[in-house]
Design a protein that fits this description.
563 residues; Rossmann fold; 4 domains; 4-stranded parallel sheet; 18 helices; 46% helix; 11% strand
Amino acid sequence: MKNQNQIKQTSSPFRDMHIVYDRKSTDDADNQKNSLEYQRGANLRFAKREKLNIADLTIPNFCNAGIINERHSGFKEDECFEIMPNGTVQYKIERPKFLRLVGMLKNKEIKGAIFLCWDRASRNGQDDVIIKKLLKLGCDIRFSETTYEKSSSGDLHMDIDGMFSTHYSRVISEKVRNTNRKLRAEGKFINCSPTGYLDNGSGDKPIDPVRAPIVKRIFELYATGDWSVLELSKWANEQGLTTKPSRGKRTEDQILSNIELETMPKISRPVTHKTIEHILTNPFYIGQNRTKEGFIISTAHQPLIDTSLFNKVQEVLKARCVSVYYVNKKFATYRKLIRCTCGRAYCHYIRKGIGYYRLRCAATCNNPDRNLKESDIHASIQSLMDRMHFDDEELRELEVKARSGIDAITIKRNKELDDLHNQEKRVYADLDYLTKNRITLLRTNSMSIEDAKTEENRLMGQLNEIRQKAGAYGEAAQEMLKYVTTFSELIKRASLYYKFALDNEKRDIAAMMFTELTFNNKKLVDFKGKDGFEALLRRKKLTGDSTGNRTPIPALKRPCPNR
C-alpha cells in the first residue's frame, strides 16, 4: 500500500506547486476582507513575492487555474462523530472543496496551499486539528497576511489566531440569534410571509391584492366540508393562484460553481395540495406568528380571515372530511339528492348509455340491492308527485269541513286579533309615557340613561313581535283555503310536466320540491320536502310504489350519515 502511494505521489505533475484557496464566509458577508476578489489579489501577490508556483490545474466545480473559490461558513461543523474499533475517530468536514484540498495535500499531489489568514482556512476546532496535522506531515501551508514561526511561539501564535477566529464566529452567531429573538418578541416576522402577503421587511407584511382574495376563498370553501385539499388545489389553479415568486434551492453543481443565490431568478409555481395544506394550517392568516414559545400577536401584518373561520377549518381538517365536490364534474340528475337508509349518498355512473346510481354502504346496512337505474328513480318521483296533490275525495272533504269550520276559525281569529290590538295599545301607551316623562325620570334618578334606552328597546321588540303575529292573521280563512287548493292544482300540473321534462329540468323540479330522497331495495322509502311542499308531502306519508296504491310509510329511525 505504501508503494502504491509513493507511485501516486511521484506521478503527480503538481507535486512542487501550490494551490490558492479563497473562501467567502456566509456568516460575515459584509466584510470587505471576506470578498473573493480581495483574497485572490492578496494571495497571488504573496505567491509572486515569495516565488511560489501556482499549479495550472483546472477541475470543474473545484478549481480554475490553481485557484479555489468556495462560499461556505467555516464555523459550521457536524456534531456527529464515530469511534472506530482501531481507535480512530471519524467526523464530517462540511466544506466539499476544502475536503478535496485536504486529500490532495495529504497524498502529496501538491506541495502546499495559500490562504489569506487563519480564519479563511478554519473557524472551528475540527478544521484546526486537520491543518495542524497537515503542517506536521510537511505540507507547505502559507498565509499571505501572517507568518508562523516553527517554534513554540509560532504554535502559540497559531493557537491564539484559531481561538480568536472561533470567538469571532460565535459572536456573530450570537448577535444574529439575539436580533431575531428581539424581532420575534416585538411581533415582527423575520421569514418570508406565506402566499397572500407581500414582503417589505420584517416589520411590514402587507396583504397581496391579487392572491389574498383567492386564499380567503379557499378557507371559506374548505370550511363548508364539501371540498378536499386536492380539489381545492385544482380550483385554485383554475383561479390563477400561484405561489409567491421565490428562488429554488441550488443544486450541488451550482453550489460548487459558486453561483450566488441572489443571481438566480425568482419563479412563481402552480399551487399543489401541499400548498393548500400549509395555507389551511397556518395561523399567520389570523394575525399570529408562530415561535418556539407559542403563538404571539403580529405587529407586522393584518389578519386575512377571522378566528372563527380558522377554527372551523381546523375542525374540518381534524375530522378528515372527504370531498363530495368535484371540479368540472359531469351532470347527474339526482346528484346529492338520493341516499340510502344508512345515510350514504349514491354516486352516478353510465353503463351502455344508461344512467345508474350506486353506493358503498356501511357494513351494518340492510340494503340488499345498492344499484338504482335512473329510470326507476324517475318513476318513483313521478308516482309520488301524481299523488301529492289533493284528489277529488279530499277536495270534497275540505269543502264540507270549510262550511262548518271556517266560521269558527274566523271567530277565533278575530278574538286573537283583538287581543293583539289591545297588547299593541298598551305598548304604545308605555312608549308614550317613557317619551313624555324621560326628563322627569332622569332628574329624580328613577331611571338612568342606559335604563331608559334598554326599556325603550324592550318595548320596541314587543311591538315588532305583536305586529308579526297580527300579520299572520291578516289573511282570511277562506282566502287561505283558496291558496292551498290552488297550490295543489299547480303541483298536479307540475307532475305532468315532470313526466316529459328533460334531465336538467327534472333536476330543477326535484331540487325545488325535495332536499333528500331515501331508497332501499330500489324503492323510495322516505323523503324530505322543501317549504310549502312539506305540508302536502307529510299529510299522507306515501311510498313510491308504482301501483298507485296510497300506503303510509312506517316511521324510519334514520341513523346519522356516516360522512
